[in-house]
Amino acid sequence: MAEFRGLGFDPVPGSPDAVAEAARRCIATATRLEEIPSPGTVPGWAGRSAQALADRAGRAAAGLAATGDTLRAAAGVLEGWAGALLANHRRAEDLDRRAIAARRAVTSAHDDVEQAETEAQFSPAAQPDLAAARGRLAARRDDLDRVLAEARDLERAHRTEAARVAERLSALGDGSPLPEAPGSAEITTHLETFSAVGRELGVTVAKTPVVPVTPPPGAVSAFAAALGGR
Asked: Do residues 133 and 109 lie in contact, with contact meaning Cβ atoms separated by under 8 Å?
């Protein structure tokens, strides 16, 4: 977590590296889902029960494919957010350096005012110097206020963009939801450690535009392993 001593607050919460890692995990999970083999047909087995299994397997395969597509789309959104986070962090670091310099200038100007006040107590001729010192202090405080205002503007812009990203993640895969996939909470929890955007990914993973299905046991275990990174 970055420390912004000059600003006194973090205007750009979030970790670009963590977001990029979440995107990579989404792509890896989608790839592993694509590798799950279909149950296929059972030699020597025919009739209504065999057809029912084939139909169920087909729907399960469609559901897994749709989930993979959703994960890839989510990865694209997250990759874009990682880039935005990185740019915002660099901007915040620049503002923090300016804020540190501005605070030092305020401290120095305040010391000058105190010295001028002391001199003015013993010499009326020092009053113009006191007025000038107070003017410099006011100007340095204005400089600091401007930097802090820029940081607040950045914070608002950052939160607005984070909300847009959350909305895009939430909108992915709209339609009939699949049953909750084992391990999907792990991705959501990981994302929530660095940005409010993350809470939408768990919703995204659970939504695909297909009829709800129950994947065969082998597919479920593979999906769980993929999501958990095992």
From this structure: yes
pLDDT in tens, 37-94: 766 666 666 667 666 766 666 666 666 777 888 889 999 999 999 999 999 999 999 9
Phi, psi at 22, each rounded to 5°:
-60, -40
Q: What's the CA gap between 40 and 104, in Å, rounded?
A: 72
| DSSP string across 53-105 | HHHHHHHHHHHHHHHHHHHHHHHHHHHHHHHHHHHHHHHHHHHHHHHHHHHHH
3-state class (DSSP) for residue 188:
helix
d(C-alpha 216, C-alpha 43), whole Å: 18
Distance between CA atoms of residues 105 and 135, nearest Å: 13
> Hey, where are the domains in the chain?
16-228
Q: How far apart are CA 77 and CA 172, in angstroms?
A: 10
Query: Measured between alpha carbons, how far is 125 from 183 in angstroms, rounded to an integer?
Result: 77
191 CB burial (10 A radius; 0-12, 13-18, 19+) = buried
Token duo for residue 157:
């812009």
Q: Long-range contacts of range 110-116, CB-CB < 8 Å, 24 or more positions apart? A: 110/137, 112/136, 112/137, 113/137
CA geometry: angle 131, 125, 115, nearest 5 deg: 55
Q: What is the pLDDT of residue 124?
A: 84
pLDDT tens by residue, 110-168: 999 999 999 999 898 889 999 999 999 999 999 999 999 999 999 999 999 999 998 88
